[in-house]
Amino acid sequence: MADEVRVPITTDADLVTARAEGRAMAERLGFPRPDPTLIATAISEVARNIVVHAGRGEIVLRPFDDADRFGVVVVARDEGPGIRDVDAALRDDYSGRGGLGLGLPGARRLMDDFDLESDADTGTTVTMTKWRYRDELARRREERRRRA
Amino acid sequence: MSVAILRQGSYLIASIQSDLSDREVTELRHELADLVGRHRSRGIVIDVAALDVIDSFVARALRAIVLTARLRGAETVIVGIQPDVAIAMVQFRLNLKPLRVALDLDDAIELLDRLTRGDAEDGG
Amino acid sequence: MNDHKFVLPVRIQHVATPIREEDHMDREPDRPEPDEEPDHETEPDHETDDRPEQSSSEDADGLLQELVAYLRENRGDLREEWARRISDAELLGVMSEDEIFSEATAVYDNYVDALETGSIETLQTYARELSERIIPRGVETDEVLGIVLLLRDVLARSLFAKYREEGDLLDRILDAYEPAANRIAVTVGVSFVDERERVIHEQQEALRELSTPVLQLRDRLLILPIIGALDSARARQLTEQLLAAIRDKRATVVVIDITGVATVDASVANHLVQTVEASRLMGARTILTGLSSEIAQTLVDLGVDLSMMKTVGDLQGGIEEADRLAGYQGAGGADSRADGET
Asked: Which CATH class is domain B3-116?
């Protein structure tokens, strides 16, 4: 399987690249539609935050491919000023206005796993994952295991 | 050029050709605001079929275009939202109030014709 | 002279003798110590230095036949032992005891036949037929391999027990048994997996044939009748197909009929709402028809925002409503919902 892809983020033009790379990797991995678009959209949100709030950072796309599942881990990292109120940033009031305008609640809704770490010293790291079962068999096997 | 803007009668038709950077989106906003004023356009159609991502920034820009155009007497219709993009926008829960949409250019023109026929009850 | 402290069978210095019960008696002094641990590994450790020169295939054949005779003779006990081990290992949970016993009998007989004839063709056929029967029941590959290997173990142990005192003979019996037994295990396993893949492909084909569930009733009016169980994966697929159809057929109204759907869970209800909203973004209005009172209740309980969509009791009513909407949209009426608002 392909290795990880790193996209340095410094200008808004890099967002176009990050979106394209995210989509390409998702399609390569075999994500069914509309997942590649969901992933690219989530990447767009977190990458923009880097440009707007930190000036620069990077997006790392890490594919994984297990026996039962496949997916991609997206890490958006910067050393900017950090988010003071992480809870507010993630609060989903479903109005589209929540989240301090950072688009994080929305991005979280598009992905399966979502983690945000941020402080003034080290900056911000968003780690989000989208995955799928490899096939129907894998899904049923997993359900059987869970029930047991 | 990333956006082609044509004039059809009193309407402006903006056709986005490819994925836009934030700067290009902002330029589009300003350009349309400018053109509406200059040509006293009654309607704008924005074709987003080439956008395979519409995120919060683009949605915000589209909202701004609609509201600005309305202040200058023009209605705006968005066309060509792709299926996957529509799903992403819905799942993201983007705020899409005041946006009007139509399936394609023909429908958009027809809608604008109806809206600009001088009725005050178009719910804008 | 002979070191009998074996965990695994070792060679005992003998001149090879014909296999007969009487000979067994003669070798009594060589019997292992009473406190000997009778449990061995199923794979014996062959010390190859003093192997007698008699490994002609005839000899191996003769041994195999003796072995087969023994296995047939002890069919009842061995089969029972095997069935017991299957249930201890909690395999074939989807089958009843009677079913397990009857299949076990068939497998056992086929196994022994294959050992006897050396031909795997009959076994392959049987394994395929068995797979056809049990795959729809939900039996998995690990279970099938598991039971075949358990049978191999049970038979091997019984051979150890029988030929324990005749170390050299035991070696040769195992030399004859092992490759045959392993070949059988592989054959059964591969047959099962092959059958499974065949089933999967069949299902994929069937799915592909159902790939156009969206019907065009009139110009710009689509109907999506949904029948059967709806899970997240299927809902996702239907949404993609509907939205693509809206785009391709330039639909302005869509009627989604769920008369044929018994229940929906939270995630499917969510999918439904998102589908309606996404259709809206593409310029199409949605009418939902055929909601059972149970589903209606579920949607209400889930707090689903139904203001977004129009619901009508039955499909006929839905189509009439759709015509009405389409009529408004054509003639430029005052219905604000026809004016492209999201």
From this structure: alpha beta
> pLDDT tens digits, chain A, 148 residues: what are they?
468 999 999 999 999 999 999 999 999 998 988 999 999 999 999 999 999 999 999 999 999 988 779 999 999 999 999 998 888 888 876 655 556 778 899 999 999 999 999 999 999 999 999 999 877 656 666 666 666 5
At B70 the three-state DSSP class reads helix
Give the integer Cα–Cα distance in Å for B66 and B124.
Answer: 10
> Is B72 in CB contact (< 8 Å) with chain C?
no
CB contact under 8 A, C200 and A136: yes
Within 10 Å of residue A84's Cβ, how many Cβ atoms? 11
Kind plus residue range of the DSSP H or E element containing C288:
strand C285-289
Among chain C residues, the shortest Cα distance to B48 is held by C282
Q: Is the pTM of this model over 0.80?
A: no
- Please check whether residue A128 is in contact with residue A108, taking contact to mean a CB–CB distance below 8 angstroms: yes
> What is the complex's ipTM, to 2 decimals?
0.91
- Opening angle at CA C193, ends C189 and C198, nearest 5: 150
Tell which residue, C264, C272, C267, C283, has the closest CA to residue C222: C283
Domain layout of chain B by residue ranges:
3-116
Q: Which helix (H) or strand (E) holds B32?
A: helix B22-39
